[in-house]
Amino acid sequence: MVTTHNLGFPRIGKKRELKFALESYWNGDLSQNELLDTGTSLRLQHWQYQEQLDFLPVGDFSFYDHVLDTSFLLGNIPRRAAETADNKLDNYFRVARGRARNEADCHCIQAGEMTKWFDTNYHYIVPEFDSNTRFSLDASRLLEDIAKAQQQGHQVKPVVIGPVTYLWLGKTKDHTPKLDLLDKLLPVYAELFAKLEKAGIEWLQVDEPILVTEFSDAWEHALRKAYHTLQSTSLKLLLTTYFGELQENLQLVCSLPVDGIHIDAVNAKNEVARVIDWLPSHKVLSLGVINGRNIWKTDLTETINWLSPIYERLQSRLWLAPSCSLLHVPVDVRSERQLDNEIKSWFSFAIQKLDELALIASALRHGKDGVAEQLAKNKTAIEHRKNSARVHHRAVKDRVLAVTDETGNRQSPYAVRTKVQRQRFDLPLYPTTTIGSFPQTPEIRQVRKDFRAGKLSAEQYRTAMQNEIKHCVKEQEALGLDVLVHGEPERNDMVEYFGEQLAGYTFTQFGWVQSYGSRCVKPPIIYGDVFRPEPMTVEWITYAQSLTEKPMKGMLTGPVTMLNWSFVRDDQPRSETCLQLALAIRDEVLALERAGIAMIQIDEAALREGLPLRKSQWQSYLDWAIRSFRITANGVKDETQIHTHMCYSEFNDIMASIARMDADVITIETSRSDMELLDVFDEFHYPNEIGPGVYDIHSPNIPTVDAMVDLMTKAARRIPAKRLWVNPDCGLKTRQWDEVKAALKNMVTASKILRKKS
Ligand code: GLN
Ligand code: ZN
Is the pTM higher than 0.70? Predict the structure, then answer.
């Protein structure tokens, strides 16, 4: 008999119940017991949704982050938190976010560092190590959850992060090599395994996603050692990998002494046959056949047909699951009441994905006849999507086919353009500008909300936005900035704003996915060929330009960022969808140029985060990503100045690609690193203009004139002054007006001092 299971369920709740409970607790409006109760009832609910599975994942729920949970499970709590110990949960929140409750006497500590979980948009709290790190097991929470789930009659399969991935995810604070800690860590895992066995657990899911990445021999050795050491237990281990192919690690994965392995059969479908050949015949093979990273319905008939011979061969050794934890998809498509019905019929969120799994298992176990009706329904949805006129637009596809290298080339190289542009703009040395947005006050948000709700007419809305733009322009002129922006009051989000105006995009009401802690994002969905039916920003930008003699930068979001922050269609390569986006935004660039806008900024905030897990695949991603940007940006005349912006400056490894974008000006984040991040420019001579951020907009602090002069002086050691701009790190929308004015005033003064000095 085939066995079904799940790797993890979203914990935030259908309507983000956990988010709201957490935030109330942090604000002091909810007691700790009430928060714990919310957690318990969410878990009970989530277990019910998963009732039809043979094995229920437990230990996947978290009040903030499952990696931080693991640190607490293993007793690896930063000393600064252990010292303030009073209450375990509060201590946990202190490591997560610096404080447990927002109160004056909060025992605040430095929050743990946060970083991205593999190539997802989920962020985890980085485990901290040093030579004194000791581990000690605290499995109380996990064991309680297990007991509770068992009481409900579920067959429980706990989920833990494996020891090697745990070390791999962390950071040493001194120079201790992380792998030196393995010997201290393994006994704690052994102790945990013994406890689980005692709790009546048969199977344990041990996540080692490190196995889809490239690692050195030392890590391979650690993996072998870990699983050889831990195998003495009679608990059965399901070694779990996800997010990609095993490639050179395939034989290693098959040979580790565990009782079964799980592989991502969506991303690594082509490896399944080889895995079956390599896997010893006593081991279970779990195939992740439902995409846990996207929202499309699975083609059930195709999947069943593909699985049938595999099932025939493996029989009860075959397990089925989603490809990875369902953490990365929204909970329930049935909550969506405003989606177009046809489009909605193509989607499958977490709960629906588990239904699909059950259906596949049923067809394998008892034949397709028993589920013929559901299969027919699924087939209809799949066919409709394949052939829908909403998805396919001949003109878009033809346009993509007609793209040549020429499409992405500027008329002349930078050296020629810069002369034309300097003449046109006549900017001073160290020109000042901002990244686009100005503070989004509650009043602006209210206006947008009222307009959406139909409480304001289009005319009233336009007037309100124009007033805000007028205000932004006036403030910028008063501050003496050299290149102005309109302030983006009409935008709620840099991707959503454009997605809503592009054909091929749709939006959900409740399609939330956890980003970190209580923070969720609601990625738009690209379901069809993308094009731009009408101008998207021209009216606002030309209005803003009409108010000033200074250059007004047009503000757009780039194709790669649009792609990386959306759920993307799975019926064509990402690169092709990106190209469609590129052409659509190119239309807007050219429209702005025709309307007399002389500077256009195309933000690529998310370019870096699209990098594949394996370095060997970076170049091909960068090739199509940069090509897409070039197609968007480079159709303009020499005298039009293209800017781009990126919210990070770890460029060392992709500098050459960034330079290939050939933007006239790039603005990046650097202030927090004291310009250290500019070291890369010692070796790589960035050819065009650059604005290293001097104002850390993530902090309420007002940077001083001296600090900014100092930062720019450091920058000028690496980049000639005549190619430097002065600007903040990122947009100002999350800040208050009084902070922004004070900071920008200092920034303008700093720039004047710099001019005098040079
Ligand atoms: N132009 C956008 C803004 O200023 C850029 C935001 C971003 O890079 N994340 O808000
Ligand atoms: Zn930014």
Answer: yes
Residues 6 or more apart in contact with residue 701 via CB below 8 angstroms = none
Pocket test for ligand 1, best of 121, 434, 437, 585 (most atoms within 8 A of CB): 437
* 64 close to 14: Cβ distance less than 8 angstroms: no
Tell me if residue 698 is catalytic: yes
465-497 pLDDT, tens per residue?
999 999 999 999 999 999 999 999 999 999 999
- Mean of the per-residue pLDDT values of the chain: 96
Written as one letter, the residue type at 295 is I
| Integer Cα distance of 324 and 117 in angstroms | 13
**DSSP at 683:** H
Give the list of residues 6+ apart from residue 502 with CB closer than 8 angstroms, or none. Answer: 530, 531, 532, 533, 536, 581, 584
Contacts of 175 (CB under 8 A, 6+ apart): none
Tokens of 127: 């485990």
The separation between CA 470 and the C-alpha centre of its own chain, rounded to angstroms, equals 34
CA distances from 203 to 3, 97, 258 (A): 12, 34, 11
pLDDT in tens, 20-38: 999 999 999 999 999 999 9
CA distance 112 to 216: 27
Residue closest via CA to ligand 1's atom 6 equals 731
Taking the CA of 434 as reference, the closest ligand is 1
Contacts of 646 (CB under 8 A, 6+ apart): 603, 604, 605, 607, 608, 658, 666, 667, 668, 669
Q: Which of the 8 DSSP states describes residue 162? A: -
Say how many Å lie between the CA of residue 469 and the centre of ligand 1. 16
Which SS3 state, helix, strand or coil, does residue 23 take? helix
For residue 434, give Cα distances in angstroms to 485, 651, 699: 7, 21, 16
> Tokens 């960022």, residue?
561
Residue with the smallest CA separation from ligand 1 atom 9 is: 605
As given in the structure block, the two tokens for residue 140 are 């109380």
Q: Evaluate whether 545 touches 552 at the Cβ level (below 8 Å).
A: yes
**Helices 574-594 and 538-546 sit at what angle, rounded to 10 degrees?**
30
Task: List residues near ligand 1 (CB under 6 A).
Answer: 435-437, 488, 494, 555, 603, 605, 645, 647, 730-731, 733
485, 487, 490, 491 alpha-carbon torsion, rounded to 10°: 100
Output the 3-class SS for 250-285: HHHHHHCCCCEEEECCCCCHHHHHHHHHHCCCCCEE
Residue 512 and residue 519: Cα distance in Å, rounded? Answer: 9
- For 147, left (φ over 0), alpha (ψ -120 to 50), or beta? alpha
